[in-house]
Amino acid sequence: IYNRRRIEEIWKEGNPFSWHLFSESKLIFSTNGKNLMKDLGKPKSYQNLKTDLNKFADLYQTSKQSLLNSTNSTDFELSMIFLAIRNFATCYSLGILNWLNFSRRSALHLGEDSIRISKSSFELLEQSRILSTRGLGKVVSQQELNEIITELYLIDNWFINLLNKSVVK
After folding, report:
1. pLDDT at residue 3, as a whole number
2. What's residue 129's pLDDT?
3. What is the pTM of this model?
4. Whole-number Cα distances in Å, 130 to 69, 138, 164
5. Which residues contact 153 (CB under 8 A, 6 or more apart)?
6. Please, how many CA atoms are within 13 Å of residue 128, restricted to the half-sphere of its CB?
7. Which residues contact 94 (CB under 8 A, 6 or more apart)?
8. Which of 77, 82, 109, 119 could form a disulfide with 67 if both were Cys (CB 3.0 to 4.6 A apart)?
9. How crowded is residue 50: how many other Cβ atoms within 10 Å of its Cβ?
């Protein structure tokens, strides 16, 4: 839960979450009749693109290494890989492409910069995220895990290519 001061801070830095709230939130109830999101107006331009992209690329690398080195938390690591991909794509979309893309499948909606893994691998990563956060769904099988592992190099290349593109811009 965010307090007003923290929300104002993320508004000033143009944090992607502020843009998400600005573009998609709807007031349901207000005890004082005020609409904080409307009162704050449009967030500032996105300031922390490089830091955020590196943070999510690092999360991906850490989760990938944990996945490859241990089987104790496979679904959690797959969930973190999905989170890293989604959040990286959202930040890239806002900071480089200058468009708002907060979809869970944002990495598939970047045009020529979209992630190029199989539909089934992407869906398995998404399924692991839902299982990890909501407790809904099934654990990936060894065969499904092997499918994802064979495509990790494609995910590596996607992160590297987009990080390189973001440095140029």
Report:
1. 82
2. 97
3. 0.91
4. 23, 9, 30
5. none
6. 23
7. 16, 19, 46, 49, 100, 101
8. 77
9. 13
